[in-house]
Structure formats: structure tokens, C-alpha cells
Design brief:
The protein has helices at about 1-10, 25-35, 40, 45-65, 70-85, 90-100, 105-120, 125-150, 150-175, 180-205, 210-220, 225-240, 250-275. It is mainly alpha-helical. Keywords: Membrane, Transmembrane, Transmembrane helix.
Amino acid sequence: MGLISLLISLAAEKSLSSPFWQFNYAFGHYMSVVKKQDFHNKVTGVLLPIILLAVPVVLTYLALSFVEDGLLHLVVSTAILIICFGCVKTRDTYKCFLQSAFKGELTTCDLHYQQLISDKSLPDHGFGQTLVWLNYRYYISVMMYFVVFGAAGAVFYRLLCSLDEQQHRLTEQEPESAAITDVYSKLLFIADWLPVRLASFGLMIVGHFSKAFPVWIDNFFQFSKAPQCVLIDVAQQAEDIMVDDKDCTAEPCLLVKLAKRNVLLWFAVIAILTLSGVIS
């Protein structure tokens, strides 16, 4: 069932352009309900982020647990996975970046990049490296959580990412909310610790193994290192990048291709594990 859901979701995610199929659409409605109920004033402290995260996850789990029909369960799980996959804004930013680059508008390219890292509350690693990280966040990690924990797992991870991004933006305006930001960041660090090392192992397999392997081994045992730094360090070694200073598209395009190969690799791994009966 999980393999079929993954196959359908990966095939359908990019072709479904309606806002209904975008996670940000559902997230926006969820936060609107929270705001209308004045939830932030009713619940304070560390309990607030835990409840905001737990409610949709528990509801998803309970809803699917009551679905006894196998076909209906597959349809609902697949629909949830499609919503959790991908990020239209990131994909559009990449396209706009390339269009601006081909026109020679380098200042516009930089503006697209700065807007992306601002929206996603990410450090400045470079455009190509940022895209590799977001590919992991919106595809590979969601796949892993879905396979291990089902649709509720995919909702958990994607919701945690969105809450963390939103809270970082809010903290810039309201520094007193930094404690809540810290909660999301710590939860996300834990949630990413193992998946990011598995994903970076995949980058090593589909890329330059001999160059990336020492970096992967070194990063694996750095338990406190930021997950995005782990992935980016391996990605930089896994791809042979001949950078032309006049071509700002070279590195992003090569790293995006590397990331796409990694998605296909992990889909193949999941397929083999499913067909061999290791996972269901």
C-alpha cells in the first residue's frame, strides 16, 4: 500500500496545481482556525507548540484507523501524501531564478535567492545547496516518515517544518516568542537527525562516492551538527561541479539533478524493501 501511494504521489504531485493540493493551503486554514479561537492566549508556554503539532497528527491517525476498507485507506493516505509532498513556492522560485539568469539579470537572481531563504528561515549556504536541502525536506524526509509512520508521520514532519518556519518569522517581529521557536527547532533537529544522514548516504551513492564517503563518515558522528550542514557538506563532495563565474546556473542545476537522483534512489530502496517484505 505504501509503495503504491508513493508511486502515485510522486507522479501526481507536480501536475496537481490547485491550491487544495498544496500543504501551505491546508496549513493556512489551520492557523486561521487557531487564530479565530484565540488559542495563543488560552494556551501558553511550551505546551502551545506541542498541542499545535499534535492535534492534526492525532486526528489524521484516528481518521485513518477508522477506515477499514483497504482501497479507501489507500486513496485517503495517497491524497494526504500528495499534499505533504513538494513546495510550489520553492519550485517557482527556482524557475524564476533560471529565467532571470538566462536573461543576464544577476541582481534579480540574488533577490529570488534571498527571498527563498527568508521565507524558509534558512542560513545563507548558496542557492544550489539550499535547493538540495529543500528537496530533502519536501520529498525524501516526507517519504521516510510516511513509510515508517504512515500518513500521520508525513503530516507530523511537514507540519513541524511549517510551524518552525512560521515561528522563526514571528520571532523576528516578536523576540519574546523565542522560547517557542527553540522548541520547534529542537524537535526538528531530532526529527531530522537520522533521516538526513540516510539521505546524505544516498547522495554519496548517486554521486561521487570516493570523495563524499570520508565527509559522510565524519559528519555521521558529529551529533550536534545542524542537519542542513550535514547534507550540504556531503552534497558538495558528491557532485563534481565545474563552476563558471559567469554562469550562476551551473551549480544549482547540477545539485538539483543530484537531489532528483537521490529521490529516485530512495524510492527504489523503499520498493525493494516493500517487495521483499521488510516493510509493508
